[in-house]
Design brief:
Blueprint lengths: L1 H8 L4 H22 L1 H12 L3 H4 L1 H20 L5 H21 L3 H28 L6 H29 L2 H25 L9 H6 L4 H21 L2 H9 L3 H28 L1 H21 L4 H29 L5 H28 L6 H33 L17
Length: 421
């Protein structure tokens, strides 16, 4: 046990650190390209001649493309060389952003977003897999957290920079900037993919699909979807919550959302460290903190100071869960089907995000006050925690039984082996 703790604390070597830095920059690029649309919607609606609500469909179209397109791409490209696949997908992401930048109509802009979303859906699972491959197994939590860190930084820096660029020049300039940045990071990540170990021989679509029947894969997918639904039941409507219920001005909301993003960055790094020590423990701790922070945010929504504190904790808790569940998926999925499993998990995240926003909207339409949205999200997080605790308890019980059962070589002569029972 002492050896494991020492190894966990050892720093990564230079090559692994550089590889993870490249992957962090890639995920930052993809994350910025995904969420920047939120700050550009009014200008896009005005320029393309559609209503704000219609322009908002660009967000839903992107999310649903990831949900549906990701698993399909994972199945159809499973046998492709990863270096070649990364180049093709990054080129598709560039093309999608270029089409959006030059589109004369809303319809063509939506086509560009769909193309970018398809590439996004397949690239993120590849990035997580590459991160796990460049470090020792006991450092996978930290490595996966470094990829997730790119998304946290996209919220902290990418979104405001993209919005400012769109306001300073034009909303199309933001799409051009993402396209150029994607081109810049393609070469290093393609080189990294070429050096990483390939998929073992003998894998095929049937072997990949078989992983979806694994109970552990299904449970971590369910926990991912529930955690996302819990977070986005509240986060989708956090701006009106902060202004109408807590009492902050509209200008203060930008600073508070930045604080949420900083909390996410801190939580992501802490979650990675906890995951290196124990994946299921990290998941349970993150979900417990997520549920507590949301319930307390709802309970203190009329007081500014505690509301700010619990908003920060909310961001930290949710982003601590992400590297834990992703590393768990890498650990339980077979090498042959890892990309498909991670892609299905990404679909679960986006589905949970969509359902959380929908559920929060239904609560508002039913006349529920905004302060109850974090409470509802907190209760969903408690459900996710109960599922994770049940899996943790079951896994410990199975490990004890496995340790107590004699192996075939240890069984007494004439006794039936465990395989025959």
């Amino acid at each position: 046990m002492q050896t494991t703790e020492t190894n966990t604390c050892q720093p990564l070597d230079r090559k692994a650190s550089l590889a993870l830095a490249a992957l962090t920059l890639c995920s930052f690029t993809l994350g910025t390209g995904e969420i920047m649309i939120a700050g550009l919607l009014p200008d896009i609606a005005s320029d393309t001649g559609v209503s704000l609500s219609t322009a908002g469909l660009l967000i839903s179209v992107f999310a649903m493309t990831v949900v549906v397109g990701g698993p399909i791409l994972a199945l159809t490209t499973g046998a492709a060389r990863r270096s070649r696949l990364v180049v093709v997908l990054m080129a598709c992401y560039v093309l999608g952003n270029v089409v959006s930048a030059v589109s004369p109509s809303f319809l063509l802009l939506a086509v560009g977003r769909i193309a970018a979303a398809l590439a996004h859906s397949a690239l993120m699972p590849l990035f997580f897999g590459l991160a796990a491959d460049v470090v020792p197994p006991h450092k996978r939590g930290t490595a996966v957290a470094r990829v997730s860190l790119g998304f946290s930084l996209a919220m902290v820096a990418g979104l405001p920079i993209g919005t400012a660029l769109g306001q300073w020049l034009d909303w199309r300039a933001t799409f051009w900037a993402v396209a150029v940045l994607t081109l810049a990071v393609t070469a290093p990540v393609a080189l990294l993919a070429g050096k990483a170990p390939g998929v073992p021989a003998g894998s095929g679509r049937l072997a990949e699909l078989r992983v979806l029947g694994d109970r552990r894969v299904r449970i971590v997918t369910a926990v991912t979807a529930l955690a996302a639904a819990a977070a986005f039941t509240a986060y989708t409507y956090v701006a009106p919550l902060l202004t109408d219920t807590v009492g902050f001005t509209a200008s203060a909301v930008t600073v508070l959302l930045l604080l949420f993003g900083i909390g996410g960055t801190v939580g992501n790094l802490v979650g990675g460290r906890l995951t290196d020590r124990s994946m299921m423990h990290a998941i349970c701790v993150g979900l417990a903190a997520l549920g507590a922070s949301l319930l307390l945010l709802g309970a203190t929504a009329t007081s500014k100071v505690p509301a700010v504190a619990f908003l920060f904790l909310f961001g930290a808790a949710y982003y601590a869960v992400i590297p834990a569940v992703n590393t768990r998926m890498i650990d339980v999925a077979s090498q042959q089907a890892r990309t498909l499993a991670l892609t299905v998990q990404s679909s679960a995240f986006n589905l949970g995000t969509a359902l959380g926003g929908w559920f929060g909207g239904r609560l508002i339409a039913a006349g529920t006050g905004l302060r109850w949205l974090p409470v509802a999200g907190g209760l969903i997080a408690v459900v996710a925690l109960l599922v994770a605790l049940g899996e943790t308890s079951g896994e410990k019980r199975r490990n004890v039984l496995a340790a107590a059962s004699p192996t075939p070589s240890e069984a007494p002569a004439g006794a039936p082996s465990s395989e025959g029972r």
